[in-house]
Amino acid sequence: MSTETTPLSSTPRTTLRRHRERGQTDRTALYEVLDAGLICHLGIVADGDPVVLPIAYGRDGDTLYLHGSSANGAFRAADGQRVCVTVTHTDGLVAARSVFSHSVNYRSAVVFGTATVVKDEDERWNALRLITDHLIPGRWAAARQPTTKEMAATAVLSLPLTEASVKVRTGMPKDEPEDHSLDVWAGVLPISVSFGEPLPDPELRAEVPLPTHIRDRVR
User: Fold this and answer.
1) Count of CB atoms situated within 10 Å of the CB of 166
2) Beta strand pairing status for 49-60 and 39-46?
3) For the chain, what is the radius of gyration of the CA atoms?
4) pLDDT digits (tens, 9 = 90+) for 194-212
């Protein structure tokens, strides 16, 4: 059986207790949420204090790669530690007739596991390529490759996608039937994320054209 058809793990940490009907139980749903995001949030405990870091990431099958500075103590503290990574998309504001019934349409993924600093150089290069191309597909091949000094300044964490949960809310407000007669507007304010027109660096030489992979990202 392929990993894309196997269900997500069910553990005490991934079992939904509120709005269980919003839970998605297959790995394809997890991949879709992760692949559509740009930034994840890494939750760790560093020096006894909880820290949440916004981080660029990329996915290779059932492994999530996170990119950070090798000088970042909180990021490096995640090595060998149990961590939590989240990715959330806000798709709409749900305006109900009652304040209590207001909500948000969203897609979210929560991943639990033990993070590991990637030390194998081939895996590090592949991970950084994945992260770069996750943000802008095709960018790795178009740009200058990292130097030895730049690689030394960069740390990569890997996290297995073994234990995760996905939760999605869609649709209209869930007002109480007795509130339907109220003279209060109800509905959804959709939210979408889009790229604007590329802004060239003022130092860019005039003869350097806008590359296809940038134009494709805008589309």
Assistant:
1) 26
2) antiparallel
3) 21
4) 999 999 999 999 999 999 9
